[in-house]
Amino acid sequence: MPRLGLGVWKTSNTDAAQSVSQAIQHGYRLIDTAKQYGNEPGVGAGIQDGLLQTGLNRKDLFVTTKVLNDDQGYDSTLRAFEASLKQLRLHYVDLYLIHWPVDGRFIDTWRALEELYRNGQIRAIGISNFDRDRLSELLDKTSITPVINQMEFNPLNQEKDIRQLMQLAGIQLEAWSPLGGGEALNNLVITKLAAKYQRSAAQIILRWDYQQGIVVIPKSTHVKRIIENSQLGDFELSDEDVAAIQALDQGKRGLWYDDFTWHNPTNPQAIAGGIETWDDTAKFLQK
């Protein structure tokens, strides 16, 4: 799995098609999307165009998508996976994730992922946004260990508790929102390091992730930033500077379970309620 990829959260289908194609043309090989984002068709179009422009083959890319919350459950997950393949215009995905652990359903959802994996329809299976308790339950009740836990992770939110369990279980951390928005990018420690190394604040954070072995999927729809975010191989942060960024941890999450009611399937509200989606698929497909 590549260590750096393109994320497309909050990206329209049109922008996703353009940014995915541009990312592939500029060396990205990992593309991360989800049904919740409502842009799988755009991502699929971008993949096809990127392959056409570069002469690469499908096997050269690593494509991830995720199970929507209200698709969770054994049979519904199997159906959702087939629908995602059609939207992406692919015959398989490299990594399929449970997007959020819906209580009372994520074990059955995981068993569906295990079946898809054993049948060769997915190259790897993993999870996203699992806290320590839910990850422990999954490990106790299922037979295949997730390869990935994709979590909100950045200098201000380093999830040290869950990372300890993941390391013991051999689960790779993949960071969504790795740049932490404006607050992390404008942090005085980060901006001073950017001046020291003559790099952007984003490059400093992404290099910090890279040196810790973390997979990152920064989102951008701007070609200049897509290119800039990938230019991490020709400098290295000192151990002292890595430690300075690690000291910024505040456990400051942008999203977590307390923000939503959907994770309890007995709640009268819809399971997907509380999570905004950005779906312009119908409009995109009419073009």
From TrEMBL:
Family: Belongs to the aldo/keto reductase family.
Lineage of producing organism: Bacteria, Bacillati, Bacillota, Bacilli, Lactobacillales
Active-site residue list: 37 (proton donor)
Residues the record marks as site: Lowers pKa of active site Tyr: 66
Binding site for substrate: 99
Keyword terms, alphabetized: NADP, Oxidoreductase
NADP-dependent oxidoreductase domain residues: 4-249
Top-level taxon of origin: Bacteria
Protein name (database record): Aldo/keto reductase
Gene3D superfamilies: NADP-dependent oxidoreductase domain (3.20.20.100)
GO molecular-function term, one example from the UniProt record: oxidoreductase activity, acting on the CH-OH group of donors, NAD or NADP as acceptor
Pfam families, A to Z: Aldo_ket_red
SUPFAM superfamilies: NAD(P)-linked oxidoreductase
Membrane-spanning segments: none
